[in-house]
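[Automated response] Your request has been received and processed.

Submitted sequence:
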Amino acid sequence: MFVIVGLGNPGKQYESTRHNVGFISADYLAAKEGIELNKLKFKAVFGEGRIGGEKVLIVKPQTFMNLSGESLREIVNFYKIPPENLIVIYDDVSLPTGKIRIRPKGSDGGHNGMKSIIYQLGSDSFPRIRLGIGAAPTGWDMADWVTGRFTDEEIKTLSKSVELIPDIVREMIKNGTQSAMNLYNGKG
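Generated structure:
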């Protein structure tokens, strides 16, 4: 079983913001795979289904970003998920808008959601898909940047990357993270 997690902040005011690229990706993946995100448990909205013949949960934690690990700890413990079967999708300010970077493990890179997950799970050994949202312009507060809305041009660029998420997740499930890295790193 695999758990695919899109990170974001709950609430209307955060919809379609840079920090919610993970939620946007999870919604797109669920729609493409015919999985309804209709369950509420573990401080998350999630749905169950199959991708590439494997049972999956697609999860959107409903804690705020910096508490995402609380939700995931509950899910991982309940379903006894090994770290390599947890795939986290989230935004990255160190990548240009729309660029994709897949990694099998690693540090939090300054991302508060990832910091929470690593702390709560006691491990950084889980695959992740980072989607670039670009660096904050000079003089911008980071919190204002990540909770800001995309420009029309950024939406066009990012949409192409989000559309690759189902293929990336299928590849990770079927052939592993390294194969997905070889095929998709740097795309977008």
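Summary generated for your ticket: The chain has seven helices and seven strands. The first helix runs from residue 21 to 33.
If you did not submit this request, please reply to this message.
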